[in-house]
Amino acid sequence: MINRNLRVVLAEDSVVLRDGMVELLSARGCEVVATAGTAPELLAAVVEHRPDVAVVDIRMPPTHTDEGIRAAVEVRARTPEVGILVFSQHVETAWASRLLADGAGGIGYLLKERVARTSEFVDALQRVANGGTALDPEVVTQLMRGGQHSRVDTLTPREREVLELMAQGHSNRSIAALLLVSERAVEKHVAAVFTKFDLPATGADNRRVKAVLTYLAESGS
């Protein structure tokens, strides 16, 4: 992963939370180039500043329902090079599926109450900015509910476990530690997933992202 000082646009309608996040991110070396309290302000800020990543709350004025994530989908359509990290108290699976649908990576979805440390949040921002994924386990679980697809059906239970952890941003070494297996065993499961999803050898990181997005897209909705 390439670590760099990230340029961030932050969309959050709570002034207190927004100001606190600006301080925390700045202290971690990120440059918050703009903040937004509404969806239109977010869109304008992204077009103007072209950040590495936009942090977006789902519920924003005026209705406080799904304005933020709708705007995130529009940001992805207009500026696909900008990473999107949804940071919310709520899981909106339909809109999350739309964000993941293009298979391009650079997508994160974290739940506010489950981020324990600022370092975890900044690590997630880095993964998203570098084209990876950072998905809360609860988001993954809810996205996987729904219909099945033949390629998903071919996965073994262990391969699914490995892929779910990949979706959360874990490395092979981290997955091995969590599942109490060898790193070599994890590598074999990952290779099996690539084969079953018909992902040819290119960049390993790129294949990991595509495997995750294929899984989520075909398991849900």
Automatic annotation (TrEMBL):
The keyword Transcription regulation applies. It comes from the Bacteria. Residues 148-219 form the HTH luxR-type domain. Keywords: DNA-binding, Phosphoprotein, Transcription, Transcription regulation. SUPFAM superfamilies: CheY-like. It comes from Streptomyces yunnanensis. Residues 7-127 form the Response regulatory domain. This is Response regulator transcription factor. PROSITE patterns: HTH_LUXR_2 (PS50043), RESPONSE_REGULATORY (PS50110). PANTHER family: TRANSCRIPTIONAL REGULATORY PROTEIN NARL-RELATED (PTHR43214:SF24), TWO-COMPONENT RESPONSE REGULATOR (PTHR43214). The lineage of its organism: Bacteria, Bacillati, Actinomycetota, Actinomycetes, Kitasatosporales. InterPro entries: CheY-like_superfamily, NreC/VraR/RcsB-like_REC, Sig_transdc_resp-reg_receiver, Tscrpt_reg_LuxR_C, WalR-like. The modification 4-aspartylphosphate is found at residue 57.
